[in-house]
Design brief:
The chain is an alpha/beta fold and 127 residues long. It has a single domain, classed as Response regulator (Rossmann fold). 43% of the residues lie in helices and 19% in strands. It contains six helices and five strands. It has helices spanning 13-25, 36-46, 62-71, 86-89, 97-101, 115-125; strands at 5-9, 29-33, 50-54, 80-84, 107-110. The protein has a five-stranded parallel sheet, with helices on both faces. Strand 1 (5-9), helix 1 and strand 2 form a beta-alpha-beta unit. Helix 2 runs parallel beside helix 3. It starts with a strand and ends with a helix.
């Protein structure tokens, strides 16, 4: 059986590594990307089974990446989980929870991420 491939897009290398290690321990293959532009490129090249996507990134934010992916006829069916620290920064950011609801993401997780809950949700979305 082929391993399910999870693309992890976040500008925080520690988070990418932590989530990758947890997913690999559960038998998933992981594809790291350290920004929105790299994440889009990897999604188009690799066609992952699921994407974990940070919202606040300097080059291209997660809402934009999510909407571009969901408009792509080849990639639109890939489940996307957005990671957001917006709850902590709601007064100092232009990103909003409503902005997230206006995307076509399949789920949202607040940072800091409970990796076990995230893995459980990934397993549900891939069934």
């Amino acid at each position: 059986m082929d391993k399910k491939r999870i693309l992890i897009v976040d500008d925080d290398p520690d988070l990418v590594e932590t989530v990758s290690m947890m997913l690999e321990s559960k038998g998933f293959a992981t594809l790291p990307a350290y920004g929105g532009i790299e994440g889009l490129d990897k999604a188009r090249k690799e066609t992952p089974d699921l994407i974990v996507l940070d919202v606040m990134m300097p080059d291209k934010d997660g809402y934009t990446v999510c909407n571009e992916l969901k408009k792509d006829p080849v990639l639109k069916e890939i489940p996307i989980i957005l990671l957001t620290a917006i709850g902590d920064h709601i007064t100092s950011t232009t990103y909003t929870l409503r902005g997230g609801m206006e995307t076509f993401a399949d789920d949202f997780f607040q940072k800091p991420v409970n990796t076990q809950s995230l893995v459980n949700r990934i397993e549900q979305l891939l069934k």
